[in-house]
């Protein structure tokens, strides 16, 4: 047979198809037969999905009391109402749950896990790290344990051995956290049990085999439910007795050992959490946030949470809770495509530091496969549980208040871009209409030999038109119908079809899906900018400064961050590909501006500062409406100028999403409250439970059981204040510093207290502070302090080598000041002060986050009551052998004059923290110094002038911002022409640029516009960008030309007007 006439083999379904409109109508008719009539006063009828009976072991309230009937829709201001489970689409009244359930998957879901452009920050080579010793055997998995609670308590309370003061439950708990803390293998655990058993007296009750040790932790009350799916199309298989896949586009024969994913019923987990001592009281701290408005400190200040709270909403009840959901893929082995896809729920009502702890985070489902999950399959059990929580609630028992009913609501969801596309059933991030916040289509741009989808900044409407909840449902229905009728477009406004998220009670699928700053801002924007600056592949572009990468690396390695930064700085040249998201966060918020201040040119540096300052505001605890308006202006300016300073082809979705970040804060609180950081940590915790390559699901079951058992065992077996609790805390929190004397609430002395004899200057400061002179000049002093969660280490603490925790912010009579603590001195039982070295911070305006300062020689004594918090203090060191003249000319304009004086004296060290608001073109000191030097050169005559001067021809070029024509030199009659100059041969790019501005823009303007309307660069005679560090003499020696010709290229810049209201 001719090859062209052969029938092409079908590899599998590729389209996502749904039931037709007629089928939807038939489904609706079947439902209506048993459907109760709902009125405005009645609760809507709940059509639950069938689940495994094991998931129903918890007790639900059978009836709803009148005071708990809060089923009306709470709409947050400025957004569309969440979609009810029954609605009208295109004139057809349909049940959305039935519609989504019948939208079978018909796509090839065998996708490559490495297609995440944002780069998954989490990776563990578990195959090499863990041994194959901790998996459960099949016999153990198939056993059924029906021990009652009384039997378990009796066993847990047994003595370890006759006459022992420690119970078997307490000892097993200590042993469990010890083995987990130090990652002991199964063989090591068994040997440890044998060793302890040998030491214990005869007749002890400790188990002596690994099997018995595992079996002890399988007696859990939280059931694990298996949900099966087709291995080819991932369609949900509800009835295991069926022989074929229920997906009509697949209908593959189902094997007996079908693939499955795990559900850990959230109802049971909520009940267990509420049974813990103090849990309910911790939920009540959120009510302090509602005393003020217009300040964003947590998720409670966002408009979405307020909509559930205001007007006696459901979250105004102290018993109800809400969740933030996350899912993402975590590769398990380096040599395999197998990955975990857990679904986590974080309880928003807990204080932030508690809600992100592993024991307080709910694991709802777990998918383990080489394929990415079909979200309409994975989300189905979670939807059922959330409907139960919303409609009926769950009965909880808290010892302090007794039994009560708790309801739960899904408030927000966060994920990286690929996972968000799966959750919302939308197009990938590199397609048209891929922004989930607006309906801008974007456009295609050429990148090398390929193409990229970009989002140019729209000045007239940067954030619009907005995407809405109702419109998304309409788009899903239209896309479904088009796919069934085999007509285009099969994707409508970026929506490929329905998602189960539409059916979650009261959930807004548009505003409720957060923009994750971890993947978007850090691994997306910040990483892109570092690559554009330092990657060799961009060396031909004017924004690339690869030649300065060694200097930047030297500065990075010289930084001494605080202990709050877990990772020390690493080089860009050798380690950038290994940087974690937290390292990009440190670079953006702390390192980037000080390190890059003399490396980037002024325009790009100011452009980058906009991103730094805006990010600080959006992550700040306590930002105001005015702060957010300033942040939005800065982000708009950043996005607008990005295509000019870099290139339009790099303006991907990550750049575009910056314009929506402020709205995200207004809806869900500061960016850190809905980031993926805590969920990625949870992924790492779960992955560490895997010890080997066999029976992965069995290991995960054991691990989850182990996690769930620990808090229960601690409360049941360990007495508060006992020696066992001290050992427990030491094992679990071995890295915590041991506190010494308590000075006041949340203030503790750390380390030793020593007597110290003060010198005359120090003693004079003590007399001045006390208003009298003590009889002795010897006082108790110490070097370390825990101050309201901040660690402050004096510089006299000699063991601190690679970090600096000595800088503080203090306020006396409302004046903010900075200082470097040397040590702390105890003047009396009630008066303790910090002996600090003063920092000159005259440039601090109270608003900037990064400030240029001078460390002074004078010192002061500051009582603890005036200290506000700790801060970072960086000394930027340059180790290259540059001359003084080169350093002075290379200084960026954001440094203050005093700093420049210091640099002219000291060749080895540059001390600076960059100010974020100083944008003057040149300091007066430099101008005077250059004029004086020029004058001296002229007085020495032509012979000396030849030694220090060079002739230069300079032309002015205007570059068309639309790239519709080639750059052209401005003629003389239009203010351009070729100007002949005599300049110092040590002039660099910045010096030539400033001379050109003075010539072509006298008094700051000309016929073409004002100086501020343009961005400038310097090109050599070949119209190639001039290197930042090259001097005029260097170019003369290399080119051998008689008279050097340079050009001043400029691009017209449309400035963003602050008074222009761009909000839709």
From TrEMBL:
Residues 468-482 have a biased composition (Polar residues). InterPro entries: Transposase_21. Residues 464-488 are annotated as: Disordered. PANTHER family: F5/8 TYPE C DOMAIN-CONTAINING PROTEIN-RELATED, F5_8 TYPE C DOMAIN-CONTAINING PROTEIN. This is Transposase domain-containing protein. It comes from Mytilus coruscus (Sea mussel).
């Amino acid at each position: 047979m001719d090859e062209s006439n052969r029938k092409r083999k079908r590899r599998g379904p590729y389209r996502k198809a749904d039931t037709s409109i007629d089928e939807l109508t038939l489904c609706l008719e079947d439902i209506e037969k048993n459907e109760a009539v709902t009125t405005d006063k009645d609760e809507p009828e709940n059509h639950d999905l069938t689940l495994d009976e094991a998931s129903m072991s918890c007790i639900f309230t059978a009836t709803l009391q009148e005071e708990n009937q809060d089923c009306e829709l709470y709409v947050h201001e400025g957004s569309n109402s969440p979609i009810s489970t029954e609605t009208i689409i295109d004139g057809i009244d349909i049940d959305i749950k039935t519609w989504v359930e019948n939208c079978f998957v018909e796509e090839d879901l065998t996708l490559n896990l490495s297609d995440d452009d944002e780069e998954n920050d989490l990776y563990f080579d578990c195959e090499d790290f863990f041994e194959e010793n901790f998996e459960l055997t099949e016999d153990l998995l198939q056993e059924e344990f029906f021990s009652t609670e009384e039997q378990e308590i009796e066993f847990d309370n047994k003595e370890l051995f006759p006459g022992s003061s420690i119970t078997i439950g307490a000892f097993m708990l200590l042993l469990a956290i010890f083995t987990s803390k130090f990652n002991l293998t199964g063989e090591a655990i068994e040997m440890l049990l044998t060793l302890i058993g040998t030491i214990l007296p005869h007749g002890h009750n400790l188990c002596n085999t690994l099997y018995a040790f595992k079996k002890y932790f399988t007696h859990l009350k939280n059931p694990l439910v298996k949900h099966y799916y087709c291995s080819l199309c991932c369609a949900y298989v509800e009835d295991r007795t069926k022989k074929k896949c229920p997906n009509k586009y697949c209908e593959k024969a189902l094997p007996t050992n079908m693939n499955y994913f795990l559900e850990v019923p959230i109802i049971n987990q909520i009940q267990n959490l509420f049974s813990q001592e103090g849990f309910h009281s911790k939920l009540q701290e959120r009510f302090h946030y509602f005393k003020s408005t217009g300040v964003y400190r947590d998720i409670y200040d966002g408009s979405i949470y307020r909509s559930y709270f205001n007007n006696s909403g459901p979250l105004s009840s102290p018993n109800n809770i809400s969740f933030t959901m996350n899912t993402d893929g975590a590769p398990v082995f380096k040599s395999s495509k197998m990955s975990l896809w857990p679904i986590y729920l974080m309880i928003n009502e807990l204080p932030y530091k508690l809600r992100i702890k592993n024991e307080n985070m709910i694991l709802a489902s777990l998918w383990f496969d080489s394929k990415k999950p079909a979200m309409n399959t994975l989300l189905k059990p979670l939807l059922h549980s959330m409907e139960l929580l919303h409609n009926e609630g769950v009965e909880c028992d808290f010892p302090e208040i007794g039994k009560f009913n708790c309801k739960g609501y899904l408030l927000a969801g966060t994920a990286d871009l690929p996972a968000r596309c799966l959750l919302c059933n939308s197009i990938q991030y590199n397609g048209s209409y891929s922004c989930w916040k607006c309906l801008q289509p974007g456009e295609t741009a050429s990148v090398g030999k390929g193409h990229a989808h970009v989002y140019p900044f729209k000045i007239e409407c940067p954030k619009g038109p907005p995407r809405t909840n109702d419109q998304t449902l309409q788009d899903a229905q239209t896309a479904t119908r088009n796919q069934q009728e085999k007509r285009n477009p099969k994707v409508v406004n970026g929506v490929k079809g329905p998602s189960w998220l539409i059916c979650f009670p009261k959930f807004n699928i548009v505003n409720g899906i957060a923009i994750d700053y971890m993947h978007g801002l850090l691994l997306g924007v910040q990483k892109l900018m570092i690559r554009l600056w330092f990657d060799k592949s961009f060396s031909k572009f004017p924004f690339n400064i690869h030649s300065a990468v060694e200097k930047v690396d030297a500065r990075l390695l010289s930084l001494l961050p605080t202990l709050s930064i877990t990772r020390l700085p690493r080089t860009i040249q050798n380690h950038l590909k290994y940087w974690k998201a937290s390292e990009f966060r440190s670079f953006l918020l702390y390192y980037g501006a000080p390190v890059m201040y003399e490396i980037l040119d002024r325009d790009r540096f100011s452009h980058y500062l906009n991103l730094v300052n805006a990010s600080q505001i959006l992550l700040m605890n306590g930002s105001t409406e005015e702060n957010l308006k300033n942040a939005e202006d800065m982000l708009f300016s950043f996005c607008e100028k990005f295509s000019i300073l870099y290139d339009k082809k790099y303006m991907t979705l990550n750049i575009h999403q910056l314009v929506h970040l402020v709205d995200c804060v207004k809806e869900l609180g500061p960016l850190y409250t809905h980031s993926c950081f805590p969920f990625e940590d949870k992924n790492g915790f779960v992955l560490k439970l895997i010890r080997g390559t066999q029976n992965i699901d069995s290991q995960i079951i054991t691990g989850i059981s182990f996690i769930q058992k620990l808090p229960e065992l601690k409360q049941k077996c360990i007495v508060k204040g006992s020696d066992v609790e001290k050992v427990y805390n030491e094992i679990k929190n071995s890295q915590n510093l041991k506190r010494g004397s308590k000075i006041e609430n949340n203030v503790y002395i750390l380390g030793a207290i020593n007597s110290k004899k003060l010198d005359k200057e120090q003693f004079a400061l003590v007399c001045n502070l006390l208003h009298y002179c003590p009889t002795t000049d010897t006082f108790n002093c110490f070097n370390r302090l825990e101050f309201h969660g901040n660690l402050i280490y004096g510089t006299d603490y000699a063991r601190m080598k690679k970090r600096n925790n000595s800088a503080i912010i203090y306020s006396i009579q409302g004046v903010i000041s900075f200082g470097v603590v040397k040590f702390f001195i105890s003047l009396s039982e009630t008066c303790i002060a910090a002996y600090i070295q003063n920092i000159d911070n005259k440039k601090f305006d109270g608003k900037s986050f990064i400030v240029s300062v001078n460390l002074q020689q004078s010192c002061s004594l500051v009582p603890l009551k005036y200290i506000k918090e700790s801060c970072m203090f960086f000394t930027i060191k340059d180790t290259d052998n540059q001359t003084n003249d080169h350093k002075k000319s290379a200084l960026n304009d954001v440094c203050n004059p005093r700093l420049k004086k210091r640099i002219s004296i000291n060749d080895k060290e540059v001390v600076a923290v960059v100010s974020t608001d100083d944008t003057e073109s040149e300091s007066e000191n430099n101008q005077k110094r250059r004029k004086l030097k020029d004058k001296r050169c002229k007085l020495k005559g032509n012979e000396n002038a030849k030694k220090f001067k060079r002739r230069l021809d300079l032309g002015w070029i205007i570059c068309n911002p639309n790239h519709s024509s080639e750059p052209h030199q401005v003629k003389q009659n239009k203010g351009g022409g070729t100007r002949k100059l005599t300049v110092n041969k040590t002039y660099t790019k910045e010096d030539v640029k400033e001379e050109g501005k003075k010539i072509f823009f006298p008094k700051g303007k000309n016929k073409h516009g004002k100086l501020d309307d343009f961005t400038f660069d310097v090109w050599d005679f070949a119209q190639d960008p001039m290197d930042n560090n090259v001097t005029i003499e260097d170019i003369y020696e290399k080119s051998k030309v008689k008279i050097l010709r340079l050009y001043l290229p400029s691009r017209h810049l449309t400035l963003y007007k602050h008074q222009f209201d761009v909000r839709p």
